[in-house]
Amino acid sequence: MILPIVAYGSDILRKVATEITPDYPGLPKLLEDMWETMYSSNGVGLAAPQINKDIRLFVMDSAQIFANQEEDEKGEYPDDPGIKKVFINAYIKHFEGEDWSYNEGCLSIPKIREDVMRPEEVVLEYLDENFEPHTETFNGITARIIQHEYDHIEGKLFIDYLKPLKRKMLRGKLTDISKGKIKVDYKMVFPK
Fold first, then answer.
1. Is the pTM for the entire model greater than 0.85?
2. Please, are residues 152 and 104 in contact by the beta-carbon 8 Å criterion?
3. Domain range for residue 178?
């Protein structure tokens, strides 16, 4: 089932999410719905707060980016061909490498894309969908998506990384999004 995406301005996007246990009600169906929602809205990642659940859960599929690359972009990122994964109760252990810029967008903040600096690598401790523990290092585009989605479960948004002047310039667009004055080709729910 395709779920509506929570729009910028909703309180849940600013909440630190809580951990879940293996007996979380309806988890397999929720994961199925999250994948369906992410793909139907052309996303590469989706965090539970974006579908109005304040839990430490996100899904991501960086393989889509590599599958759709132009010929001249191939070989640019070390994580080719990408991965598709579920992350439960994730915590960043540390970052490695240099910060690099990439143009990010967010399903909760449609039609706004900005360059954001993030570290090249992230070491993450998490549980998979079977609640098996992992500690893994991710790099490239995969690390970028993970950091973006991880921010969602920490109550942060990519626009928080922008310089104050840039955020001020976006204020009108952000207000329009929070008031539902935006047209998108996926279901959204706006703050009341």
1. yes
2. no
3. 5-189
